[in-house]
Amino acid sequence: MMMEDELMSEATTAVPPTPRVLLVSAGASHSVALLTGKVVCSWGRGEDGQLGLGDTDDRLLPTKLSALDGQDIVSVTCGADHTIARSESGREVYSWGWGDFGRLGHGDYSDLLIPHPIRAFQGLRIKQIACGDSHCLAVTIEKEVLSWGRNQNGQLGLGTTEDAPLPQKIQTFQGVPVKMVAAGAEHSVSITEDGDLYGWGWGRYGNLGLGDRNDRLIPEKVTVDGNKMVMVACGWRHTISVSSSGGIYTHGWGKYGQLGHGDFEDNLVPRKIQALSNKFISQVSGGWRHSMALTSNGLLFGWGWNKFGQIGVGDNFDRSSPVQVNFPHDQKIVQISCGWRHNIAVTDRENVYSWGRGANGQLGHGETIDRNVPVIIDALSFDGSPGQHIESAKAYPVSGKSSVSLSDIYAVVPDEIASGHAAHSDMGDRLDASVPESDVVTQ
């Protein structure tokens, strides 16, 4: 029989419960999760500071982002190489990572290695953020839309092609209450409270859904079979939307089967995925060249480019029609997020799985190998291996920017940074050895 002091000792050394993951988001090659207790952690590629951990190192395991401790974070969103977090009140929005084109919203083009509040949002309350490759969108509590970042194809919806390093209000939506926004590589979409779908920006592949391949500098309404739309997501150059009756529609670039219609053709207007017509879709997400859809009863389907196993079905063959992704013990999925070439899913058993490209540790498994089936992230999962824990990085306060600019670390002039980053991000990160150069269009 244990003595009282032995019982107390055992209680104090007991393993704390695994934090529950509330939200996940995947970028080009990095991942972020929000846990109970308002804890944010990140992992994967860190070259541009997108992990927010104060350095440019990759992380192979989920690592606590200490700079946001006590900041009351309720949402995190990954862009390609940057990240944004929002506080519960919506009054504080933080950004960090690659700053070129003004995508961080601070009025300049500096990279930031730790989170910094976007001062331009003072006095506003933000309820949703969407990040594309190099631009961002925000919806306010009042259902207005702001945009900032790169704008070479009009993806900011401001009527120009000039970049905006500070958030600007999209005038088209004045008096038109917006429910949600989504951002692709160079295009943007929104859904209004009335169920109308809008598209703007780069349209070469029909990704705006407006029946042609032209760019739009301001938002334009899309017709979707007369249906009211309730949800929308963007892949790199394709768009996925969901109607009020749970039907799923796609349009845009289809070369890798990412539209899910059984072929590899572009679609210039939204087209319903017939293979999922008997399912009620509750969540969608788009990657670089693949797509994922979650049904109301927790089944996950994927399709499109599968070079790195990002479809999650055990092989590396592309799929032009949806295929079901299976999880151990027939777990139901409650959340899905597509990165460029990897995915993260949360199950009803409070487990987190990832699969696809793993070269920078973005899968969170402590290694740099690709996975073509979902693999559990131990430190974030209820059923994870015992003894796993979330790593902790050095604590940095949310403060001024000067001490964490990459220009200080590398001690090179701004022009050299801009050209160097353009080279590695626009081409190097997007191009794998087997991706034809003709597939990458820089305008």
From TrEMBL:
Pfam family, one: RCC1
Keywords recorded for this protein, A-Z: Repeat
Domain RCC1-like: 125-380
InterPro entries reported in the protein's UniProt record: RCC1-like_dom (IPR058923), RCC1/BLIP-II (IPR009091), Reg_chr_condens (IPR000408), Ub_ligase/GEF_domain (IPR051210)
Source organism of the structure: Crotalaria pallida
Biased composition range(s): Basic and acidic residues: 423-432
Protein name, UniProt field: RCC1-like domain-containing protein
Repeat positions for RCC: 38-89, 91-142, 143-194, 195-245, 246-297, 298-349, 350-409
Region Disordered, residue ranges: 422-443
Alphabetical list of PANTHER family matching this protein: CHROMOSOME CONDENSATION REGULATOR RCC1 REPEAT PROTEIN, REGULATOR OF CHROMOSOME CONDENSATION
